[in-house]
Design goal:
CATH topology of chain A: ABC transporter involved in vitamin B12 uptake, BtuC
Structural class of chain B: alpha/beta
Order of helices and strands of chain A: HHHHEEHHHHHHH
Strand content of chain A: under 5%
Mean pLDDT of chain B: 91
CATH topology of the largest domain in chain B: Rossmann fold
Number of strands of chain B: 16
CATH class of the largest domain in chain B: Alpha Beta
Radius of gyration of chain B: 23 Å
Distance between the termini of chain A: 32 Å
CATH architecture of chain A: Orthogonal Bundle
Strand order of the largest sheet of chain B: 8-7-9-10-11-15-16
Largest sheet of chain A: 2 strands, antiparallel
CATH class of chain A: Mainly Alpha
Number of strands of chain A: 2
Oligomer: heterodimer
Strand order of the largest sheet of chain A: 1-2
């Protein structure tokens, strides 16, 4: 039973890391290579806020807001002029963002490791199903579920979500209705960056905070995005849970096969159902 | 005489004159030039700066000169990759460098080793730990003054026996060097009557150890051998701390913790044991002087990277000075088989058969530090003699 709890927490942490990427990919058609760097930036912002305020929760709130503002500036200043150009310009631009963000982090925080302690409320393990489960994992489980439900309702059930999806599917039509598509794009990119930073802040008590941490998550994020379907929040949740459970069960019973199975799922998805295992035709969210 | 013949003659003449100039310059150089190729970025980017500090202090302590000439170090960043390491060292050698200092990662050091052998230039290694760097009948021009991984594995074996651990569960980084190290450890402790109750191999860069930690917690192992290092070691200890693993089991590893890594882990590192390459608390006169000077200059405690770099470079420059010659072959012959009585870690002997420095091995536990020590500091608990750590050549 503890394996299932760990698998779910692994999956929902993966979802938190990948949600911003799938949102930007699905709604704007931009492959944001800088997603990992913004995740890293989120962890560093959380670290800095914790240093100043002593509160992890303030850091968790501040990281997505600051990264969101930064994301809006990045989109407005750099990405907007290249929407009409070939995709390769967007790729190069987001790659450039990586270099700028990493250099900025190096200048501000240096090369040494930073540490965000586990919040006191979740610092002790709890006994569950005969296992000692870190309570912070349970927090991730609950928080990840909350974020996924909010995102799903916001994009799939709200009027704003409908406008965002419409702007993604047919921007000219939405523009003629008097809706400013440019602002929607800026908002979506900012929101995606905020989600990446939120993932970084949530992961901060679990991993060392250092300059290279963003690169280590980007492959997992792309697996979730591809398997779940571009821009499909529900698909991203399912894909992340599938990946999390595969890892939890795999590491318990067949550790040597975990990576093989993970990449096999990715390859099979790309070959058999490139739109994603959990996509429904005609929907983007 | 055709134009082509004239051109060929001109090229030959130019080459010869260049060689003459080079030979004359080599016989009476204006400076002792060191090619410092270390990592300032990449996976080990944090290490290069400390090594640079150690070397700079070693040079400062001898008045900045050797053989009557100023010492000039040119630092290059190998980005923790072998290819840039070779490219940058090659460029520095073309500029007249007399030796190479570096690198950080063993892969980069092995790449530099080939270059050093081709160019017949000494290579001084003070941090890379792969055993293959110093092997019998290996590179004539490579010398290592710091620890080997094999030595650190043997320290872990000695610690397991000394601590009286009976059942071990291990997590091992899934790559060749650590797998080989684990096999060495496993065979040695099994011979001593210790039972291995489980082992998991985690990929390099693994970000989540929760499943492995859960498996460990469910066994009756009394010791957890953590054969991962750097970021991976920090991640493991942070997550094992959240599960309370350290409350019931002794966690240890050959290269698991120092002050830098303990700070990254936080309080969960308390009580964790690890091999230590150099430590500022090691009690001898040379180390006291070095630590005092380092703190005065940099306002920080020297890390193992700084200490090893200082120690190795001081020993090497003293040896070069003792030859009174600019002949690199004489430097190499003098360093092989030399003894450093007053190193920062006591006596070190450079073995002529493999160019590996025999030295004591330090083992320590993370404890709470009192001012002015770092809040989480290593307390040296065991000092192992070289005879227990280095197999004969």
């Amino acid at each position: 039973m503890s394996t299932i709890v760990i698998g779910l927490s692994l999956g929902l942490l993966l979802f938190l890391l990948a949600a911003g990427l799938t949102l930007i990919f699905g709604m704007l058609g931009v492959i944001n290579f800088a997603h990992g760097s913004i995740y890293m930036l989120g962890a560093f912002i959380a670290y800095q806020v914790v240093q100043i305020t002593g509160s992890f929760w303030v850091g968790l709130l501040a990281a997505p807001i600051i990264a969101g503002v930064l994301g809006a500036a990045m989109e407005w200043l750099a990405l907007k002029p290249v929407y009409s150009r070939d995709h390769v310009y967007q790729l190069l631009l987001t790659f450039g963002f990586i270099l700028v963000i990493e250099e900025a982090v190096r200048i501000f925080w240096g090369l040494d490791y930073k540490q965000v302690p586990t919040p006191d409320l979740f610092s002790q393990p709890v006994q569950l199903f005969g296992s000692s489960i870190p309570s912070y994992r349970l927090f991730i489980l609950g928080f990840g579920t909350f974020v996924s439900v909010v995102l799903f309702l916001a994009l799939d059930r709200s009027r704003h979500g409908m406008v965002i999806r419409a702007a993604s599917a047919d921007p000219e039509m939405v523009q003629t209705l008097g809706i400013r598509v440019g602002r929607i794009r800026t908002g979506v990119f900012a929101f995606g960056c905020g989600l990446a930073a939120l993932g970084g802040a949530v992961a901060a008590p679990l991993v060392p905070i250092e300059l290279g941490m963003g690169m280590s998550i980007i492959i997992d994020c792309f697996i979730v995005v591809v398997v779940g379907g571009l821009g499909n929040i529900r698909g991203a949740v399912m894909a992340a849970l599938l990946l999390g459970m595969t890892r939890a069960i795999g590491y318990t019973y067949a550790p040597d096969w975990v990576d093989f199975i993970t990449y096999l799922v990715l390859i099979v998805t790309l070959m058999v159902r490139p739109e994603g295992l959990f996509s429904r035709k005609g929907r983007t969210a | 005489m055709s134009v082509r013949t004239l051109a060929a003659a001109a090229v030959c003449a130019a080459s010869l004159s260049g060689m003459t100039v080079h030979a004359a310059w080599a016989a009476d150089p204006d400076a002792f030039k060191i090619a410092g190729v270390v990592a300032f970025s990449g996976a080990y980017g944090i290490i290069g700066e400390d090594m640079k500090r150690g070397v700079e202090l070693a040079i400062e302590h001898r008045g900045g000169k050797v053989l009557g000439k100023p010492i000039q170090v040119t630092w290059e960043d190998d980005e923790t990759k072998p290819q840039p390491a070779v490219q940058k060292a090659t460029r520095l050698l073309a500029g007249g460098a007399h030796m190479i200092f570096g690198a950080v990662s063993s892969a980069s050091t092995v790449a530099l080793q080939s270059l050093a052998d081709q160019r017949k230039v000494p290579l001084l290694v003070t941090i890379s730990a792969d055993d293959k760097i110093t092997r019998p009948n290996g590179s004539r021009y490579t010398f290592r003054t710091s620890n080997t991984l094999g030595m650190e594995i043997r320290m872990a074996v000695e610690f397991t026996k000394a601590k009286g651990l009976k059942k071990i569960y291990a997590v091992v980084a899934d790559y060749t060097v650590t797998r080989e190290g684990w096999e060495t450890y496993r065979k040695a402790v099994e011979q001593a009557g210790v039972t291995i109750v489980g082992v998991d191999y985690a990929p390099l860069g693994n970000r989540d150890y929760s499943v492995i930690i859960d498996k460990m917690a469910k066994t009756d192992a009394d010791g957890i051998a953590v054969m991962v290092t750097g970021n991976d070691g920090v991640t493991f200890l942070k997550q094992s701390g959240q599960a309370g693993l350290g409350k019931t089991k002794v966690q240890f590893g050959p290269v698991l913790q120092d002050e830098l890594l303990a700070a990254a882990v936080g309080p969960a590192s308390l009580g964790v044991y690890s091999g230590v390459r150099y430590h500022f608390s090691h009690d001898n006169e040379a180390n006291r002087k070095f630590v005092e000077a380092y703190r005065a200059k940099f306002n920080a405690w020297p890390s193992s990277f700084a200490g090893e770099a200082y120690d190795g470079m001081s020993w090497w420059l003293d040896t070069v000075e003792s030859t009174g010659s600019w002949d690199k072959e004489k430097w190499v012959d003098a360093f092989a088989g030399s003894t450093r009585e007053n190193s920062l870690e006591g006596k070190k002997v450079m073995r002529a058969c493999d160019h590996q420095a025999l030295q004591v091995g330090l083992w320590g536990e993370v404890v709470e530090g009192k001012e002015p020590l770092p809040p989480l500091t290593m307390k040296i608990t065991n000092v192992f003699e070289p005879e227990a750590l280095f197999p004969p050549c």
